[in-house]
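Recall from the previous chapter that SMILES is a line notation for molecules. Here it describes zinc ion.
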Amino acid sequence: MFEGKNGKINSEIMEDEIGDNHIATTATTPLRDDAFEVSDTDKMLAIEENMAQILHTLGMDLTDDSIKGTPRRVAKMFVQEIFSGLNPKNMPKASTFDNNYKYGEMLVEKNITVYSTCEHHLLPIVGRAHVAYISNGNVIGLSKMNRIVDYYSKRPQVQERLTMQIVQELQRALNTDDVACVIDAKHLCVNSRGIRDVASSTVTSEFGGKFKEAATKREFLDYIKLETSFE
Ligand SMILES: Nc1nc2c(ncn2[C@@H]2O[C@H](COP(=O)(O)OP(=O)(O)OP(=O)(O)O)[C@@H](O)[C@H]2O)c(=O)[nH]1
Ligand SMILES: [Zn+2]
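With both inputs in hand, we obtain:
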C-alpha cells in the first residue's frame, strides 16, 4: 500500500481502495509513476549535482569554503526535511483508540504550525492549521493531528491541496466524514517577491460531513478564534 500507483501514494491509494466508503479522492500530489524507483540516497546525489550546476551557472565559486557544502546541504534538506512528506515511509502512524468515554462533541486541535513549500516558486509557506473532528466511535492521539499536518506540509504544495489532504487523511484514519480544517498562512512568494505584499495571508478551508452544516461550522470557527494563553 506504500507503493506509487498512478502518481498516488499512501492514503491516496487507500482512499481509492476503500472505494465508495465516504469521500472522493480529489487532492493528490502529482507524482510520476516511477517516483519510488529511486532511493533517497540516489535522489540526494542527483539533487546535489544539479544544485551545484545551478550555483555554478549563477556564477558562484563552488571552491569557496562557505558554499562548497551547499549543494549537499540543499539535497539533504530537500529529501530528508522539507520534502520528506513525499516519501510514504515518513507517513505518521495515526493511532486511534475506542471512544470509551463516549465524548460526543467536536475536538479541535488549533494553532498547529505549518511550514510548507509553495510548489510554484519553492518558497516557504508559513502559518497555522486548525483541525477538528467529531468521533464516530474512534478517537485519535492529539499529536497525530499535528503530525499529519506536518507530513503533508513537507511536500511541494498549494495550500488548497494541503488543506484537503489533511482532511482526507483524518477522514480515513477516523472512519468518518466529520472532519474540518482551516489553514491561514503566509506565502513568501507573495510576501517577499512578485507583488511583495508583506501583509496578506491566505485562508483555505475544507468542511466534511456535519461540518458543512452552518451551526457546526460556526462552532468550529468560534473555537479557533479563542485566544489561548497559558503563560
Ligand atoms: N492557488 C494557489 N496559488 C498559489 C499558491 N502558492 C502560490 N501561488 C500562486 O501561484 C501563482 C503562479 O503564477 P505565475 O504567474 O505562473 O507566476 P509568477 O509570474 O511568479 O507570478 P507573480 O507571483 O504574480 O509574480 C502566483 O499567483 C502565486 O501567488 C497556493 O498555495 N495556491
Ligand atoms: Zn509561490
